[in-house]
Design brief:
Elements lengths: L1 H15 L1 H10 L7 E2 H9 L5 H6 L5 H4 L3 E4 L10 E4 L1 H7 L12 E2 L15 H12 L4 E6 L6 H11 L4 E5 L7 H18 L2 E5 L18 H4 L3 E6 L12 E4 L5 H11 L5 H15 L11
Helix pairs in contact: 1-2, 1-3, 7-8, 11-12
Length: 297
Amino acid sequence: TPTEHRVLWVLIAQELDPVARANLRELATESEVDVSHDVMRRVVYGRQPSLACWDEISSAGALRTSCLIDAIDSTTVPTHRTTFRISNRVLSLVHGQYAVDRELVGVISCPPDMPSLESIVVDEESKETIRSAVVDANGSFVIVVGTGGSGRRSLLVALARATGRDVLAIDARELDGEPELVSRQLRILARECKLFDRIPLVLNLDALGPSDEIKDRYGLLENFVRLRLVLATSTRAISRRWIRTPTMVELPPLKGSEREQVWKRALPEASDGDAHHLRQAAQLEYEGMGKLSFKAS
């Protein structure tokens, strides 16, 4: 909103401009260094109590839930003395730094030369189901289930790029164990996706299963579902009651002809017979009967 924009600019001025900083301190009725709730209300929202002020800079407002501003001492002081600072993320943008927020751990860059949609060998029926869910997304949450190396990530990245948007991928195994920190990391990821028009891709979603510290870590992901589109990969189907039921598609193992196609692509000089024998050897290894250690990638 216009007033939310002004809140951001007031806090940016507090950081960057000595004159603005001095003027804001003159307005303070307490010996506060940072901008207090009382000063922010009078500067941005007017002298009278304001519902917009109460909502927009509260802990439930977009500015704080998106980690654009941070509240200091918000739990130990009266509300009017709560002070605010602009986030380092916003300051980095002001200075022209567009890299992903350093606070966001576990981020994985998907290289630009990942396979195109046409070149990815997966079950065609599953591919079409996933494509429809991604391209025709309207508040969709798409989870692709399969084994490692089955093409889950490549397929989702290619489908996202086919819509003209890139992804911002994060490995769920790298998220913190503390509930508050996990929640903050996920909110930061949502914010980064909004700022740069990216689609969030949560890899290894099943790693967010219950832990000793957090009984329902999937519940922390629910805020993501509010975005227009959220993508995820998992090694197993996840059974739980979601706020918005996801589209969950399991990629079946490749058929023999599809495996041969993968081998031919990996080894362009191989003949059809070579690809057939390599596929058979890999299948024997997969079934635990082979003596040679072939591993299809």
